[in-house]
Design goal:
The chain is an alpha/beta fold and about 350 residues long. About 30% of the residues lie in helices and about 20% in strands. Keywords: Oxidoreductase, Signal.
């Protein structure tokens, strides 16, 4: 017998509300229509299930380039804290609901013909296209920040391999070592950043009490610093933490990954472990589809309709100005499916 947990109940209620809200989309989608969702993160996978629940006869295809995205990973516990929440929609569940899953990447979108060109050489036709692009790192003009540096100073920001690398570096931290968390001025996920700082502080307190954490917070306001100080006190985290704000010189001007050195407006720092978080923008498919403005994000209305292309629907974190949280991704599905 399957045990009904509070988490499963919440997910069930979400799915039910999304389907209920979708009651009117039958007027817009014909049973013979082909709905294609690009991106199988929490927003994309949930949208596929919601569309299928609302329209059992609709042909729904979920396209994902990463074959591990829908797998059930056991993973190691140490790295789990640095990996984003995984979708509840496994490959077996999607297939059981009659959803076609294609493992491929989109190289071009022909909106006029209603056709996607795929990396494999195949095409995928659509009548309605939903994009859940997620986010990708934005290039920065920082001296020394090359591919080797990014490998040595993992962001572990949605990348499981980097999460394992960061966890391994923390496991090898000297007893009185120094960890630096770098947060950019253009921070895409403030709540995730706060969680990351707290995770690092807790780990140091539990495993290396003599070690210390420095947070380079280049965001323009002290909001994160204040939230961290409050949470650290309420959670009783006994760790040595120095939080340097933008006003105090948190901006990074150069890095030397081999020496573990970071140059900032506040001076030079030497660290044993550097968790270097870059700024992010909407994922590559959003640019390919022509849905990104100068900010790097997808401007949309409240229901996910692109302001640059009226027949495009954007889900999840790639939306400009959205709340980039798991709940935010789920709510974007409910709002989008309701008006499709």
């Amino acid at each position: 017998m399957t045990r009904l947990t509070r988490r499963h109940l919440a997910l069930g209620l979400f799915a039910t509300s999304a389907v209920a809200a979708a009651g009117g989309i039958g007027l817009a989608l014909a049973p013979s229509d082909r709905a294609v969702i690009v991106g199988a993160g929490p927003a994309g996978a949930q949208a596929a299930l919601a569309l299928r629940a609302a329209h059992p006869a609709l042909r729904v295809t979920l396209l994902e380039r990463d074959p591990t995205r829908l797998a059930r990973e056991t993973g190691d516990a140490a790295a789990a804290a640095f990996v984003p929440p995984r979708t509840e929609a496994t490959l077996s569940r999607l297939k059981a609901q009659g959803i076609e899953v294609m493992l491929d990447d989109v190289t071009d979108v022909d909106w006029t013909a209603g056709r996607l060109s795929l990396f494999s050489g195949r095409d995928a036709a659509f009548d309605r296209l939903y994009l859940a692009p997620g986010t990708t790192a934005k290039a920065e003009a920082i001296e020394g920040l090359d591919a080797e540096a990014r490998f040595a100073m993992p962001a572990a920001w949605g990348n499981a391999r980097e999460a394992r690398r960061l966890a391994a570096q923390l496991a090898a931290l000297p007893e009185a070592g120094h960890v630096v968390l770098r947060l950019p001025a253009e921070l895409s996920h403030p709540q995730v950043a706060l969680h990351r700082a707290l995770v690092l502080a807790r780990r140091i307190a539990a495993t290396r009490p003599a070690a210390r954490l420095t947070v380079l917070d280049a965001t323009p306001t002290p909001a994160l610093a204040q939230s961290f100080a409050m949470a650290k006190r309420l959670q009783g985290i006994d760790a040595q933490v120095a939080w340097i704000t933008a006003a105090e010189g948190a901006g990074v001007t150069a890095v030397d990954a081999r020496a573990g050195r970071i140059e900032t407006g506040a001076g030079s720092l030497r660290a044993d472990v550097i968790n270097f978080v870059p700024p992010h923008v909407a994922g590559a498919i959003a640019r390919t589809a022509g849905l990104v403005d100068a900010s790097g994000w997808c401007p949309c209305d409240a229901r996910g309709r692109s302001m640059l292309r009226s027949d495009a629907v954007v889900l999840g974190d790639a939306r400009k100005g959205t709340a980039r949280t798991l709940d935010g991704a789920r709510l974007s599905v409910a709002a989008t499916v309701a008006q499709a």
